[in-house]
Design goal:
This protein is of the alpha+beta class. Helices cover about 30% and strands about 20% of the residues. It has an 8-stranded mixed sheet with strand order 4-3-5-6-7-8-9-10, with helices on both faces. A 5-stranded mixed sheet has the order 12-11-13-15-14, sandwiched between helices. The chain has a two-stranded antiparallel sheet with strand order 1-2. It binds 2,5-anhydro-1,6-di-O-phosphono-D-glucitol and manganese (II) ion (2 copies). 2,5-anhydro-1,6-di-O-phosphono-D-glucitol (AHG) binds next to β5.
């Protein structure tokens, strides 16, 4: 029986490193930090309910949202791993209002800044639906020997050197890009390794899934409601009506659409004119991934990765997924009202 060659994430990253003359090796090390934290969070997610990490932490975060215990635990694990690794000089986290400057990170290697959503889909923790971690990696602009500045952190998505996510679902997967395509790795707990399972992921140009919280449609623009009606029209040639799929964990909706094709929309609404999802650690990393997989991400008109961030926790409206579906949504949503 032909034994399948197992390629671990660590091997894959170092092989990619050898192919990239500009690589210095630090990125490999910072990925080790992320992998370590991901395995720890995965261990705790898999036994949530047996240990006291379900339910609320009794606090609210900078977003004014109720913090879940698993949010706190995941945040602490990723901050600890990144701070001890020695390659990260600052962290932007959904759970922390200010920049987390890593102490004594004035080593030459401490040049990376990580923006992260330590646990995406918190509302699904207690009901055992898929949740995830999202991360985005930049190189600092200011010299290593100086303090990390806000300008180091507020870089547009085009400057990302890597982005990825871990999805704690029916299996635990890590999907990432460094600008050389998108690859997916599934955690084999029996050997404690993420193994290559989805090489060269590409998103279909067309799909038949749309993901949006239609419960908010009374607050949507007329043009967006026109697009949603378009999704529901019967037209065999364009695979309509589409199927509505909305899990309430951005990472889970995104991952399904990445593999099957589809569009995810978190739009501007009357009460949230900038939408809900955060530019730095939800929209930018997944925009990098979807573009590397042949898809598209914009705020309705402007490519997400071209938006210059003004605040760490800035929200932006988001249309992301199959290129032709995002283009169609943009066409309908930007059409001048008759
Ligand atoms: P987080 O748990 O990190 O705050 O993210 C939750 C986000 C996103 O994962 C999901 O798509 C969205 O909130 C759901 O929002 P609604 O419940 O308003 O649809
Ligand atoms: Mn989130
Ligand atoms: Mn979160």
């Amino acid at each position: 029986m032909k034994t399948q060659k197992v390629v671990t994430l660590t091997q894959f990253i170092s092989e990619q490193q050898e192919l990239n003359p500009a690589a210095t090796g630090n990125l490999t090390r910072i990925f080790q930090d992320i992998i370590l934290a991901a395995k720890i969070v995965n261990r705790d997610v898999r036994k949530a309910g047996l240990v006291d990490i379900l339910g609320t932490h009794g606090t609210t975060n900078i977003q004014g949202e109720e913090v879940k215990k698993l949010d706190v635990m995941a945040n602490e694990e990723f901050i600890a791993a990144l701070s001890l690794g020695g390659d990260c000089c600052a962290i932007i986290s959904e759970e922390n209002e200010e920049i987390i400057r890593v102490p004594n990170s004035n080593r030459a290697s401490s040049k990376y800044i990580v923006a992260m959503d330590p646990l995406d889909g918190s509302s699904n923790i207690d009901v055992n639906a898929s949740i995830g971690t999202i991360f985005s990696i930049f190189s600092r602009i200011s010299p290593v020997s100086t303090d990390v500045t806000l300008e180091d952190c507020l870089q547009k998505g085009r400057n990302q050197i890597a982005a990825g996510y871990i999805i704690y679902g029916s299996s635990t997967m890590l999907v990432y890009t460094t600008g050389q395509g998108v690859n997916g790795f599934t955690l084999d707990s029996s050997i404690g390794e993420f193994c290559l399972s989805h090489p060269n992921i590409t998103i279909p140009k067309n799909g038949s899934i749309y993901s949006i919280n239609e419960g908010n449609s009374i607050e949507f623009s007329d043009a967006l409601n026109t697009y949603i009606s378009y999704c529901k029209e019967s037209d065999k040639a364009s695979n309509r009506p589409y199927s509505a799929r909305y899990i309430g964990s951005f990472i889970a909706d995104f991952h399904r659409n990445l593999l099957k094709g589809g569009i995810f929309i978190y739009p501007a609404t009357l009460s949230s004119p900038n939408g809900k999802l955060r530019l730095m650690y939800e929209c930018n990393p997944l925009a990098f991934i979807v573009e590397q997989a042949g898809g598209k991400a914009n705020n309705g008109t402007t490519n997400i990765m071209d938006i210059i961030p003004k605040q760490l926790h800035q929200r932006v409206p988001l249309f992301i997924g199959s290129e032709n579906m995002v283009n169609k949504a943009e066409e309908i949503c930007s059409a001048k009202p008759l």
